[in-house]
Specification:
The protein has seven helices and no strands. The chain is mainly alpha-helical. Helix 2 crosses helix 3. The chain is elongated.
């Protein structure tokens, strides 16, 4: 290897998601509505089909386009979002929006933008992001 970091893989993403959620293969399979043997094959490097990826995206609240790219069903683009941003966008798309919900989320994002300009990101403790760099 030349020392360059490899492109992220679908199996690597799955392992990280399972670790982050403290899930076993059976938990992942149950959430996605697939057989646990399929999850095992994906972890061993088999590429999931687009229909399965759609189930995973809905079940985990992540962006389907990002999963399709990660699994090699569409080419990477320079315009692809950071996976964390894509996950947030996917969650926003799954919300049933009411005027009240919109105002709450809009106010929260405004507050976050204002705080981020005053507090260096390294000083902000975020749940689930222990010691990770957000850059």
């Amino acid at each position: 290897m030349d020392g360059a970091s490899p492109e992220p893989s679908y199996s690597g993403w799955m392992l990280e998601e399972m670790r982050r959620r403290e899930w076993r293969q059976a938990d992942f399979a149950r959430a996605a509505g697939v057989d646990v043997s399929m999850v095992s094959r994906w972890l061993q490097g088999r590429r999931p089909d687009p229909e399965s990826l759609s189930r995973v995206a809905v079940a985990l609240g992540v962006d389907l386009d990002a999963l399709l790219t990660l699994a090699g069903h569409r080419p990477r683009s320079l315009r692809d979002d950071d996976p964390r941003v894509a996950t947030l966008v996917a969650k926003v798309r799954q919300v049933t929006w009411t005027p009240e919900r919109f105002l709450i989320v809009d106010a929260l994002l405004d507050d976050l933008r204002q705080r981020s300009s005053r507090v260096p990101i390294e000083q902000v403790a975020l749940p689930g992001i222990e010691g990770e760099s957000l850059r």
